[in-house]
Design goal:
By secondary structure, the protein is of the alpha+beta class. Helix content is 30%, strand content 18%. The strands form 18 sheets. Strands 35, 36, 37, 38, 39 and 40 form a six-stranded parallel beta sheet that branches. Strands 48-44-52-42-43-49 form a six-stranded antiparallel beta sheet. A five-stranded parallel beta sheet has the order 55-54-53-56-57, with helices on both faces. Helix 36 runs parallel beside helix 38 and helix 37 packs across helix 38. The protein starts with 9 loop residues before the first strand and ends with a helix. The structure holds flavin-adenine dinucleotide, NADP nicotinamide-adenine-dinucleotide phosphate and flavin mononucleotide.
């Protein structure tokens, strides 16, 4: 039972200390005695539950210990001395200016509830200017705090709160701690007299906290009203520093055996005046929790406090909850106090950092860093708690060890964007997500800074189509070693003070102009002389650099109607690049982080018309013949409006981005609404946001906004010349030498250029590949892009998608597999993009979403896969917003930039084959998804058809995309596209004769076992199996063969599979081909000796350049024969790149010329490849003068890829065995008339000795498993070797039946040439039929003498139409199709025909149904590729393509 004391300002409270959470409150030190003040009350803690403690209470006594005259340490000791379980009797003094009393009331159920009521004792001035004191009861009840105590429930329900509110009329003037801009006394108020009653009610609401507080003892909602001194809610859950009521600074808080709890809003939020508080705002910006405190297990379910803000134009009210984070986070309050508002102060303390005074402690840095890292990871759409934990640990460790840490580039980008988003004074924040970040944190001199700034200016200017960007220079270590841009903006006009007191030029820059002159700059005494850049690196004396005139775009001002205006000679710069603001990110300070947006017209008008600036208004007015004798003629207003007209007109005419104040405020309102939705609030400084002219006719004027500071943030800092300690260096103006020239002349390239390269715009090249081609292309692209960007190649599977939001330039190279599916290593990324593009619906199959139709739930939703074939771009045009040299400049796009990838430029190249119905489908899907996520497409998707012109298409696309990217990012002006694309023409930069060598029998090197070697080489776990048995399944034709191979997997426990899965087998090349290659090698290395491929590496270290031969990371040590047999592809036709290298090694001119011709990769190459399909041995034979070394081949050849086979056994029936049905591939080139070829893997499996080992792994094919619901009907269609997986199915079903499991109906449809020759598994099928594992069996024979060809699709239409309709349309049955891609497509069409006819639906509906089946995991395909009549299919597709190209 709380101990009730006398009313007034002393309260006694008994609090029982808990073992967890202690007394449940935090204290801080006061300057004066008594020293202890309550700073935080832990929600749900002991103090909170009594309801008797309040933030601001001064602790006078703990039990018998008097604290009024003791030190802070002694007081803490007394508080801590109370043992858990014991009761502490606290004597508290109510904070100054308030009185408290306890009041017991009864709720509607008659239950008693005691509440502490705290009221102001200070007289306040109400809106009528009358003074009143807020006292108990009466009309000013609203100023009190009502708090529940555990002995009952609050009687004050919502109605009583309203009653209280309506009586309030003047509280706002008191509550400026969190600055309510509309109540700021220093600014003119909007005329709101027309609705006095409304106004009164609303004002009270802005200061009234209505919370959905649920006391432990009951469930009814209670209302809590209070005024909020210094902007703090009663339970100040953070440790924000604030002042007491007398303005005394209060020291850091101490924990009284307590933990701190982060409050989160719950879903059930109250409706305030009908507008719902944004839901889960905190999910976007994580709550800041002090890392040093443990989180309590009693996570609070209290509602957050918030401010209701009214729009006086529309009458709508919104709640800002975000500001509570400002209090929780290590952020600063606005500096306003209960009785003073700093709203109009230009550089208030809370927005400034003075390095001489504000040295950030390690603890503070740690706290801010942790908060920031949490924000960063919390902001990601894809969460990665593991990574977050790891990163947090890394940061904490670094700060603890070194006192600081480095942001990753992605964190820096996020920090920069968030600082912009948080900037209360910026009106153009709708674009916050579209900020280009240039990372120059590694520069170490002013020349490099200057080069970076030139790049910045060029990028930002973009020929007038201004783009927002920021350039980061090194963070602060010690302010005496700061990097700084002394100029307040890149482009500033000089101001020259004259002896008569007048000023030529811009008065704002007089002081800085003097600094420049002292530094050696020659004044010109004009009105618009552009000042030089004054740059300081590493705390040294600054250097000054003239801005190259071509980088300083200016606009001459003229008026659309007044011709004379132009003659006045006014002009202004195009890019407002602020360069003296400090970026405060994650506890780190970046004193040099210049950034730019674009101008709002009024800013320029003010620069020229303000009295303290150019002060030209009178001149203009006189030219306009206005009556300037008295102000009531409004001549100033008229002239100013015309001046604004001139500014807008001039910029628009010159096609330089500018915003008028109406559009700017409108866009801000949109941003404001977005922000409320996204994160529950938007800090805003009304004084700055409201335009300097026509305020009340812009929407922002009528919007109440809350001003608070969130981190990361932008801060003011003192002018550097005011505290720089000169080292006495004499400065000379630097010529505008660009860094690149400098670097060339000084020849310090290795160190300097290295760093410059590292800091260029990053380009990430993502690839997904099944057989390695896309990787090759990605690498080539990387070579090209590295001429102007910092490019890197990453496999989609290795890419952490969390980085995507912060990428700047993304290039994607990917092939398509299956039947429109991604390559294995692209599946996850593709799926994630789909989820990101439709997060709310990501659980549903995409087609289901598109069709928006309900359907019977499929029984195996777990196995469905995203059908990328259904993701098409409706408008596949380039949505590029940036300008390209040869194109007209786009109109400025200054709209919203809120999409997830709004800052991303991307381009996609797809590899595929037109022999497949879904040509490059996955690449198209990626292209569409990136676009849907608001990425900016640099160039339309490129497509490379392996059947014709793949190389050429890629070359053209790569060149184009490089050129456009250079133009977009204003880089690479000195790079010739041709030179950069040299690698496309075959100059594989990765090869040079002295770069690789073969070390024979190297010391301390052993050959790894083949399994280990292959595992390392392919970065995949490879296992071993033994060939147990091989059976020829065909009879008759001599030259055809299909074999059943049975492997013993007992030695490899990781070989586990389900029916439908694949086995990947690494084959061995034919000995004969390897022999021929070994014979041709110029350097006769012993083929049986152990060799190691080595690469020459040069590194620049502080000790100088270190050169070394290092082992190649890719190829394990092995013999030369093993390398060619097991590791490299020697049968695929060599690439144009390799032919180019061969050309360089050819002694004979004719051969060289021919090789050069082929290496262009154009039609010559294509024809040659198509007809002869030459392997490496044949190419070397065709060009005998080529002197080829082993190191060349081992460094340049592509890896020998595995071949996949559908497993033909059930592990339940054959434990420790894997069976495959393999068609032996052999054919003659040139359509049958040329050389004989043998498929690498199939012939290897056919010739290997029984008992030999194979190297393999299992690839799960989840989308081709039997249905989870085993009674679902299944239709299996597989001609030829397409029957392979179905053997595993019927074996499994036979096993299941034996186990007594209920199984559904299964129909098998098989096709082959002749029943006597290639009727695979005839007897086994009969057996399966007999036991009910197959319920229906149908065959299609294509080569029965005298009979027309019958394929499976014919039988489907003719004999299985009813079954298909019944099972697939009516009974959610499954269909499985396996084998050749053309066959699969033909079957697909046949199925649609059947459904169309049988269900009497349209073609479109039939197609939709089949697509829906695919999305729902009812339609399964296992595609081997183009296997049936390969030559004919390829030839016809090729011919079609060539003809269409000619047309
Ligand atoms: C998921 C999946 C599952 C598979 N399952 C099986 C299976 O169960 N059983 C099975 O036998 N195969 C299966 N395959 C195919 C198998 O992976 C191999 O592609 C096949 O065995 C050929 O490999 P190879 O090394 O013997 O031939 P390779 O040396 O790879 O030669 C094959 C290539 O030769 C060319 N070619 C073939 N015929 C001609 C011709 N007439 N004219 C010109 N060029 C020609 C084609 O470019 C073809 O790609 C599957 C493929 C995939 C992708
Ligand atoms: N060289 C060998 O020893 C050997 C042996 C087997 C397989 N292979 C190779 O492997 C490939 C696949 O062999 P496989 O056994 O799976 O099949 P396959 O025996 O070539 O063909 C299986 C059946 O499918 C038919 N078919 C052809 N095109 C079709 C289409 N579009 N739709 C439906 N059915 C179609 C075939 O008819 P038609 O052939 O009458 O048109 C045949 O009846 C072959 O193309 C061949 O390259 C080689
Ligand atoms: C089994 C198989 C299926 C394929 N499916 C498609 C397809 O559906 N669409 C397509 O355009 N290309 C398809 N292709 C062609 C590949 O995309 C093409 O060979 C590409 O060049 C391979 O590039 P990669 O080595 O980077 O994987 C397929 C190839 C194979 C072997």
């Amino acid at each position: 039972m709380p101990n009730l004391s006398k009313p007034g300002d002393i309260i006694s409270a008994d609090i029982c200390k808990r073992s967890i959470g202690g007394l449940g409150f935090l204290v801080r030190e006061r300057r004066r005695k008594p020293v202890v003040i309550v700073s935080d009350i832990i929600e749900g803690g002991a103090a909170h539950d009594t309801g008797l403690l309040e933030v601001g209470d001064v602790v006078l006594k703990v039990n018998s210990v008097d604290l009024t005259n003791v030190s802070y340490q002694e007081a803490l000791y007394a508080l801590r001395a109370v043992k858990p379980g014991e009761t502490a009797t606290l004597l508290l003094r109510v904070r100054d200016g308030f009185t408290s009393r306890l009041e017991t009331t009864f709720n509607h159920q008659g239950q008693a509830r005691t509440v502490r009521i705290t009221e102001s004792s200070v007289p306040v001035v109400n809106s009528e200017g009358k003074s009143s004191k807020l006292t108990n009861g009466g009309p000013n009840l609203d100023n009190r705090i009502v708090r529940s105590t555990p002995n009952g429930q609050n009687t004050r329900r919502r109605e009583s709160v309203k009653k209280i509110e309506s009586k309030t009329n003047s509280l706002s003037e008191l509550t400026c701690g969190v600055c309510l801009s509309s109540n700021n006394p220093t600014i003119p108020q909007p005329p709101r007299v027309s609705a006095p009653n409304d106004r009164r009610q609303d004002v009270s609401q802005t200061v009234t906290k209505v919370v959905n507080d649920e006391p432990k003892s009951g469930s009814s909602k209670m209302a809590e009203t209070k005024n909020i001194p210094n902007g703090h809610s009663i339970t100040n859950g953070g440790n924000a520093k604030w002042n007491d009521l007398n303005g005394n600074a209060i020291a850091k808080d101490d924990v009284v055996d307590a933990t701190i709890v982060a409050r989160r809003p719950t879903e059930k939020t109250p409706l305030v005046n009908g507008i719902e508080k944004p839901k889960s705002a905190e999910s976007h910006t994580p709550t800041s929790v002090k890392p040093i405190h443990k989180s309590s297990s009693t996570e609070s379910n209290h509602q957050p406090s918030y401010h209701t803000l009214r729009n006086w134009e529309t009458g709508t009210r919104t709640n800002d909850t975000l500001y509570t984070k400002c209090m929780k986070a290590q952020s600063v309050a606005t500096g306003c106090t209960r009785n003073k508002c700093l709203g109009s102060v230009m550089n208030p303390d809370h927005m400034s950092i003075d390095p001489r005074k504000n040295v950030r402690s390690k603890e503070e840095k740690l706290e801010m860093a942790v908060d920031f890292i949490k924000q960063y990871y919390g902001s990601m759409k894809r969460k990665n708690p593991e990574m977050e934990k790891k990163r947090l640990a890394e940061v904490v460790e670094s700060i603890e060890k070194t006192g600081s840490y480095q942001l990753t580039e992605y964190e820096l980008i996020f920090g920069a964007k968030t600082a912009w988003r948080n900037a209360p004074r910026c009106i153009g924040r709708i674009q916050w997500n579209k900020l280009q970040v240039f990372d120059y944190r590694h520069v170490d001199n002013t020349a490099q800074m200057f080069d970076a700034i030139c790049n910045h200016l060029k990028y930002a200017t973009n020929k007038g189509n201004i783009r927002s960007c920021i350039t980061f220079f090194p963070q602060r270590t010690d302010y005496k070693k700061d990097f700084r841009v002394w100029s307040s903006q890149y482009i500033r006009y000089a101001g020259y003070g004259q002896p008569d007191g007048s000023i030529i030029g811009d008065p704002a820059n007089v002081e800085f102009t003097e600094v420049c002159i002292k530094l050696g700059w020659k004044p010109k005494f004009g009105r618009f002389d552009i000042l030089p850049l004054v740059l300081q690196a590493n705390g040294e004396d600054p250097d000054i650099y003239e801005i190259p005139p071509d980088l300083a775009l200016e606009v001459k001002l003229r008026h659309p109607r007044f011709k004379w205006f132009e003659e006045l000679g006014y002009k202004w710069c195009a890019v407002p690049a602020v360069s003296n603001v400090l970026l405060d990110i994650g506890g780190l300070e970046f004193p040099a982080a210049p950034f730019n947006g674009w101008f709002m017209g009024t800013e320029i008008a003010r620069d020229l018309c303000d009295v303290a600036r150019y002060n030209v208004l009178q001149d203009v007015a006189e030219k306009m013949n206005l009556d300037t004798r008295n102000t009531s003629s409004l001549w100033k207003d008229i002239a100013l409006v015309e001046f604004n007209v001139a500014v807008l007109h001039s910029y628009q005419s010159d096609r330089v981005t500018i915003m008028d104040h109406h559009s700017a405020t409108q866009s801000f309102m949109k941003h404001y609404a977005n922000e409320l939705k996204l994160r529950g609030g938007c800090p805003g400084d009304w004084v700055w946001l409201t335009p300097p002219i026509s305020g009340s006719i812009t929407p922002i004027f009528h919007q109440e906004v809350l001003n608070y500071i969130l981190h990361p943030s932008c801060k003011y800092q003192p002018d550097p010349w005011k505290y720089h300690v000169w080292k006495g260096k004499v400065n000379k103006v630097k010529k505008a030498i660009r860094f690149k020239e400098l670097a060339k002349s000084v020849l310090i390239m290795s160190s300097m250029m290295g760093k410059a390269m590292a800091n260029r715009v990053k380009a990430t090249i993502l690839y997904a590949s099944e057989t390695g081609k896309s990787l090759e292309y990605a690498k080539t692209l990387c070579d090209i892009f590295n001429h102007a960007f910092a490019a890197k190649v990453v496999c989609m599977d290795d890419y952490d998608i969390v980085h995507l939001e912060h990428e700047t330039l993304l290039l994607v190279v990917t092939s398509t597999f299956g039947n429109g599916d991604p390559p294995e290593n692209g599946v996850n990324l593709g799926q994630t993009l789909v989820e990101l593009s439709k997060p709310e619906e990501s659980q549903k199959p995409r087609m289901q979403r598109l069709l928006k139709r309900s359907s019977t739930a499929p029984d195996n939703l777990g196995t469905d896969k995203t059908r990328f074939t259904s993701i098409h771009n409706v408008t596949p045009s380039v949505r590029r917003r940036s300008s390209v040299a040869m194109e007209p400049i786009d109109l400025p796009d200054i709209g919203e930039a809120t999409g997830l990838l709004a800052n991303l430029r991307f381009a996609v190249f797809g590899l595929g084959s037109r022999a497949y119905p879904h040509f490059c489908a996955f690449a198209h899907a990626i292209d569409t998804l990136l676009g849907e996520l608001s990425g900016d497409r640099l160039l339309e998707i490129g497509e490379g058809d392996e059947l014709c012109g793949q190389e050429e298409s890629f070359r053209n696309w790569a060149k184009k995309v490089f050129q456009i990217a250079c133009e977009t990012f204003c880089v690479g002006e000195d790079v010739s596209v041709e030179a950069a694309s040299a690698s496309l023409a075959g100059q594989d930069r990765s090869w040079s004769p002295n770069k690789f060598r073969i070390a024979v029998d190297p010391e301390d090197v052993e050959e790894p076992a083949l399994l280990e070697g292959l595992s390392n080489f392919h970065k995949k776990k490879v296992s071993g199996c033994k060939l147990k048995k091989r059976t020829n399944l065909q009879s008759g034709e001599q030259d055809r063969g299909t074999i059943l191979v049975e492997f013993d997997s007992s030695s490899s426990s990781e070989i586990k599979y389900l029916p439908g899965d694949h086995i990947g087998i690494y084959p061995c090349n034919q000995t004969e081909i390897v022999d021929r290659i070994l014979e041709r090698l110029h350097d006769k290395v012993d083929e049986k000796a152990l060799i190691q491929l080595q690469i020459f590496e040069q590194r620049t270290t502080p000790l100088g350049v270190i050169s070394n031969w290092l082992p190649d990371k890719r190829l394990p040590a092995c013999t030369l024969r093993t390398a060619f047999e097991r590791y490299f592809d020697i049968t695929t036709c060599p690439t144009p790149q390799l032919l180019k290298i061969f050309a360089d090694c050819a002694a004979d001119d004719k051969e060289k010329a021919r090789l050069l011709e082929l290496s262009e990769g154009k039609s010559e190459y294509e024809e040659w490849k198509f007809h002869f399909l030459p392997n490496l041995a044949e190419v070397l034979a065709e060009f005998p003068s080529v002197r080829v070394e082993a190191s060349l081949l081992l460094s340049q050849l592509s890896p020998l890829q595995c071949r996949y086979y559908s497993i033909s056994s059930s592990t339940d029936v054959y434990p420790n065995e894997v069976h495959c049905t393999v068609a032996i591939v052999s054919y003659n080139t040139q359509g049958g008339s040329g050389t004989k070829r043998h498929g690498v893997c199939s012939s290897y499996l056919n010739r290997m000795e029984l008992g030999s080992d194979i190297c393999c792994f299992i690839r799960p094919a989840t989308s081709f498993h039997l249905p989870k619901n085993s009674s679902a009907p299944c239709l299996l269609i597989g001609p030829g070797t397409g029957i392979a997986p179905f053997r595993s199915f019927w074996q499994q079903r036979m096993y299941d039946i034996k186990q007594g499991k209920q199984v559904g109906e299964v129909a098998l449809l098989f096709g082959c040439r002749h029943p006597d020759r290639d009727h695979l598994y005839k007897d086994e099928i009969q057996e399966a039929k007999n036991c009910g594992a197959i319920t229906e069996y149908h065959t299609a024979f294509s080569r029965l003498p005298g009979q027309p060809k019958q394929y499976v699709q014919h039988v489907l239409k003719e004999q299985l139409a009813d079954l298909a309709y019944d099972w697939l349309l009516k009974n959610s049955g499954h269909v499985y199709i396996c084998g050749d891609v053309t066959m699969a497509d033909d079957v697909n069409n046949a199925l649609m025909e059947v459904l169309e006819k049988k269900a009497n639906i349209s073609k479109k509906e039939a197609r939709e149904h089949v697509t829906k089946m695919k999305e729902q995991g009812l339609y399964h395909e296992d595609i081997f590729g183009v296997t049936l009549r390969t030559y004919e299919v390829n030839k016809s597709v090729r011919q079609r393509h060539v003809t269409s190209k000619k047309k």
